[in-house]
Amino acid sequence: QMCIRDRSTQSTGTMNEAHKVRELLTRLPELHGLQKLPVMNELLDLADDADQDEIGKSFINSGLKPIFDVCKLGDFKEENSESEHILLRRKALKVISLLIEEDLLQSSLVEQGVLPIILRIIYHSPPTTERRSAVRSLWFITENAILRDEVIKLIDGRKEWDDAKINILSNPVSVEEKDWFLAILKFLGFIPFTPASGTVFYDNLEDFPFVKDLEAKYSVIKQEFQFLFDKLVAWPEKYLCQKGWDVFGLYAFQNKLDHNCKLCPETSKALENVPGMVTAMFSCLQPKTHIKPHTGYYQYSEKILRCHLAIKVPSGCVLKVNGIERTWQEGKCMIFDDTFYHEAWNKSNELRVVLMIDFMYSRSDKCMKPNQSLGSKDDICLLYTSDAADEEDSVDL
Q1: What is the model's pTM?
Q2: In the chain, what are the helix, strand and coil shares in percent, each to the nearest 5?
């Protein structure tokens, strides 16, 4: 009962804070000069809790134009760091920065016009904390593959961007600002990606006889998946994808998930013919979803390769591994090494589905022998509570 009361109190508090956001954003345009400062301080405190769904939504639904207008105040070349306009702009930029940190709010922020605000500060501000904050915000946005095209549209061919690039790299406010800007240039493709050595994609699929059998059963596997939509669960590692990556597990670290396999028996049967099969699941990316760059699990991925059988792939879906971009072909397999940094995105308005299979494989550059055991279930499950994932986010497929 105490827990129920605590949750109820927390929910009421969140709703009150969401109402407060709407009230403050309504008041802000009516105030002048430093009268805005107390309101900006309150908004800054509330933005710090934007990871709470109702508060974040309240900022978006109320409209962010009042905060954007504060960001435009005064002369960007003004030297007095304690001037009224600079104090207000700093607060407004900090609010924007906190909101942009929340992946689920980024698209709405871009739709409401945050990019021109950020770029204006990057173009015209001297090397100050304002510019540093704007660069950090742009870094968060360009990390999102779904939004990179929007950035490129605004900067392509602009002399201001070229000038800003020179200014930031030659006279950064801090080491962090320079690192963030270099990362932005890499995300946008202006700096060539330096790939790691090794085989990334295994294109000679004749080396993997099970592929032919999987592809032959594509139609029946796809048909079985049609009955699983309401049984998908969210992938728990939110630092990779806050929302939109959903899965249906079949095998987890050599352990068959009997109930799930009974729901798609032909798929399960096909998986049992994959030599050294360890883990298998249907992996789904909802529209406008991005899985951030990451590598496979320590002491697990170096012992396996990953196979994707493409079930449903609309245009605008990409897998990027070690700087190499590939797209899937429905009914065809793709095999790659997930020890390399990889990410995936779906820019379409439809669902993307692959059957994802991890199987043991001996590489010449790894100390792994064919059919070597991966260890006990408990040992492998520890991977999900290692540094790669929080304990509360442990995978339960």
Answers
A1: 0.80
A2: 50, 15, 35
